[in-house]
């Protein structure tokens, strides 16, 4: 199967690794720059983006990751992972940086205290007729989608919670913890087409 790395600095990387393995990927955990070699795609998990950013820089991964993204590596980010992929992050902590790549503006912890964590069903035609059950855990919202990116899913109030741009995919929610595999399948489609052009 395709070789997919999971950024394993922090967060729920094990859950992603399990789903990807179930779907037939050869999964490896990425903690240092050398471990980016030979992967056909990368998942950036949920967690805490400010911590993930600090660790990525500390381990010398931030620049190699930016180079990989610029080079067209397929990358799927969930929640904190989406924040890492966003070109612009609002309500970041002081000094927090993202990797960028997705032409979007995201706002961290965008749902009020009552709604920091909630579940809802999303209609996502690109993934089929069955709605996607989405779990939000202090997730970000996509406040604006730039010309290069496309919204894939929105809440009923119109706020965007899933986006893609070429080989990049991001969701505010966590398919890796609900048994929802269609996002990972969709992502593996991008990985396969890049691995076997
Ligand atoms: N609130 C976290 C952050 O800003 C994201 C939460 C998550 O990944 N579940 O990075």
From TrEMBL:
Residues annotated as transmembrane: none
Magnesium found in the keyword field: no
SUPFAM superfamilies noted in UniProt: Class I glutamine amidotransferase-like
Binding site for L-glutamine: 47-49, 108, 137-138
Catalyzed reactions: L-glutamine + H2O = L-glutamate + NH4(+); aldehydo-D-ribose 5-phosphate + D-glyceraldehyde 3-phosphate + L-glutamine = pyridoxal 5'-phosphate + L-glutamate + phosphate + 3 H2O + H(+)
EC number: 4.3.3.6, 3.5.1.2
CDD domains listed in its UniProt record: GATase1_PB (cd01749)
Pathway terms, separated by semicolons: Cofactor biosynthesis; pyridoxal 5'-phosphate biosynthesis
Keyword set, alphabetical order: Glutamine amidotransferase, Hydrolase, Lyase, Pyridoxal phosphate
Parts forming coiled coils: none
PROSITE patterns, A to Z: GATASE_COBBQ, GATASE_TYPE_1, PDXT_SNO_1, PDXT_SNO_2
Active site residues according to the UniProt entry: 79, 174, 176
Subunit structure: In the presence of PdxS, forms a dodecamer of heterodimers. Only shows activity in the heterodimer.
NCBIfam families per the UniProt record, alphabetical: PLP_synth_Pdx2
Designated name of the protein: Pyridoxal 5'-phosphate synthase subunit PdxT
Organism: Agromyces salentinus
Upper taxonomic lineage: Bacteria, Bacillati, Actinomycetota, Actinomycetes, Micrococcales
């Amino acid at each position: 199967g395709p070789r997919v790395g999971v950024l394993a600095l922090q967060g729920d990387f094990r859950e992603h690794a399990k789903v990807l393995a179930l779907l037939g990927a050869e999964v490896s955990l990425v903690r240092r720059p050398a471990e980016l070699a030979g992967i056909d795609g990368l998942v950036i998990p949920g967690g805490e983006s400010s911590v993930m950013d600090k660790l990525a820089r500390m381990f010398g991964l931030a620049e190699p990751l930016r180079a990989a993204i610029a080079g067209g590596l397929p990358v799927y980010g969930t929640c904190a992972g989406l924040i890492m992929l966003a070109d612009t992050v609002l309500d970041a902590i002081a000094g927090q940086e993202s990797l960028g790549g997705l032409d979007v503006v995201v706002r961290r912890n965008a749902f009020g205290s009552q709604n920091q964590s909630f579940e809802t069903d999303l209609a996502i035609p690109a993934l089929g007729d069955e709605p996607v059950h989405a779990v939000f855990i202090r997730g970000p919202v996509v406040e604006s989608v730039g010309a290069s990116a496309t919204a894939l899913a929105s809440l009923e109030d119109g706020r965007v919670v899933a986006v893609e741009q070429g080989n990049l995919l991001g969701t505010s929610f966590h398919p890796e913890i609900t048994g929802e595999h269609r996002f990972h399948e969709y992502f593996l489609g991008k990985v396969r087409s890049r691995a076997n052009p």
